[in-house]
């Protein structure tokens, strides 16, 4: 999986590990958490993506499940956002997912089965002031996943999207109490999600139980995105 060394990504990686799966996570130099195979990869670089998959498959065999979780933010109001801000976020979040999905597909086609899960965001469906680049990249994952689902479904390869809302991470912990209250006032369940709750949706989509689910967007947002 990409972006599996902290936060939501680490919770997902640990959930697969706990289920007995062989897990490889990408990183950009920080290394992988203990017990996980780390492969160096910047998802904006096609050659690094190819090399990372080669390394992971040499250790664990052909890729059966891809979780595309790597992503960045670079917020700014539209009139102040420059091209590099917009292009950089879209390249990492959307084009990065394209690069890893394309490489994973070659292994999955040989296996004649596979699961692709793309981690989007409630912001991709609802939008967010100051996040035109991030929202566009996360919304793009929906169209991308559904196109993959149509292309590869006949080979028993599914492609789905998980759209988390506000999740307890280092980033949300750093928010002021006032800002936390403002956010929670929008959430019907009146709390942040735990990373393990997002991981539960991802591992379910990767399981045999979800074999007939493809092209879906699964919200894990406490209800904040209802209606989108």
Automatic annotation (TrEMBL):
Asked whether the UniProt record includes Oxidoreductase among its keywords, one would answer yes
Coiled coil spans? none
Q: Which family does it belong to?
A: Belongs to the short-chain dehydrogenases/reductases (SDR) family.
Stretch forming the signal peptide: none
PROSITE patterns referenced in this protein's UniProt entry, alphabetically:
ADH_SHORT (PS00061)
Key words, A-Z = Oxidoreductase
SMART domains hit by this protein: PKS_KR
Organism of provenance? Halosaccharopolyspora lacisalsi
EC number(s) recorded for this UniProt protein: 1.1.1.100
Q: Which SUPFAM superfamilies match?
A: NAD(P)-binding Rossmann-fold domains
What Pfam families does the record point to? adh_short_C2 (PF13561)
Put simply, this protein is called: 3-oxoacyl-[acyl-carrier protein] reductase
| A molecular function GO annotation | 3-oxoacyl-[acyl-carrier-protein] reductase (NADPH) activity
Ketoreductase domain location is 2-170
